[in-house]
# Entry
Amino acid sequence: MTCQKEIRPTIRAQTQGLRNHPHKEETRLNFEPSWESLESKETPQWFRDAKFGIFLHWGIHSATEHHAWYGRKMYLQENPGDPEGNEVYEYHLANFGHPSEFGFKDFLPLWTGRHWDPDSLVKFFSESGAKYLVPVTMYHDNFDNFDSTYQAWNSTNFGPRRDVLGEWAQAARKYGLRIGASDHASRAWDWLAPAHGADVTGERAGIPYDGALTAKDGTGTFWEGYDPQDLYLTPHKESDPTPDSFTENWQRRIFEMVSKYELDLLYFDWDTLPHDHIGLEIAARFYNENPNSVVTVKNPRSTKAVVHDTEKGRFTNSRPNVWQCDTTLNHDWFYIKDQELRMSPTDVIHSLIDIVSKNGNLLLNVGLKPDGTLEDQQRQALETVGEWLKKFGLGIFGTRPWIRYGEGPTNILEVGHELGEGHFNEISLTYTSSDLRFTQNNESLFVFSMAHGPEIKFEVEQGRSVTKVTRVDSGATLEFIQVGQSLSIQTPTEGIDPVAMCYEVI
# Structure
């Protein structure tokens, strides 16, 4: 693939204000592209303090309003190993037509962004308690949601025709949030292979899908002058090895995205750093350009070199190195029409408390509508989370794990979940009044009561003499009795938050 345009001066001027932002540090370290070298990188304090971030899925898939992997599954007429593929294929036939005539690219005019207001959205996310923002910028579909020099199929040329990442970044800096971006496009070669196929049965068997189109087919279309081969990649099968030309282009796009927008965080949707040495080169360069930066990976070889991210999953105990859980309010990642939330505000708050007590951060996803707006049920959920954090955030933000994460009968493995620790073990838990979670900051110990009861009992560390116990939301003093390490706190009877209470022990 070749570059089809230069960075326009107007876009460069718009993003120039992102340079020299107050989050940057002057120190420059020298990291080499090896796991051993990257292990000397310390997770920056801002990430350890942040605790709560917003993940943003908004792109071409938003226009399908049906499935986060629509761009792959719409081309799977028959796939015994993926029944969802056939469902999406049939849905596409019924609603849009055959994929030889209406392909994935043809959703671009439906992704309008006409009401997208990143300033007001980021302001709302900040008011909801979020400290960092991670928009999906390079999804599996190989489309770039920024003003990309090396991928002509990008958001300045199609869809909203705006520099999506650049505008998210400007709004994030304005409201004091750190800005990240996620990459999923490193696996686009395999993911897009079905677009180069054809029906295997039926009256259209053998007719190529739109992945076979080239630039010469675009005359008179909305994509005239652009080559679909740059989006879908050259014709190939899923079993074909990923060519160097793809990984080299992908690397250039990552380098441009990281440097141009001065990102604080780079999220890889990958089991380890993608494409072996190339992933190490990206991490090393990112750390050298911004020593205050973070890279998150799903199953890293080293949790010192990068942050371990678990998808819809938690751990049963505190981890020695800070980690992150990414999960979503909806049942899917992108906006799905008429879909109910999969997580209630109570689920989100309980997850956040549990994750933070175990040395983790929560990255909570929302999916915007095709026009760039946030649907009411997601907005209301975040408002509830934000109100709770305004009352009890002292026990969340800037804290560190205590000598134990908590106590009580309710935990991920202890409810018998078959998947165990890590990815995809997330379930809604019903906590009891015996379930406590702990964090600490300086001399203060914070105790979260996950369900209200008349009394809290637990053991403090040896040698600790408690002098005061207060409600975090009001500062009201509570009665307590300490006998040796045993501490008993009389909980209040009025003004109880129905989700969880937090008390400060000094």
Notes: The mean pLDDT is 92. The CA atoms of residues 322 and 359 lie 5 Å apart.
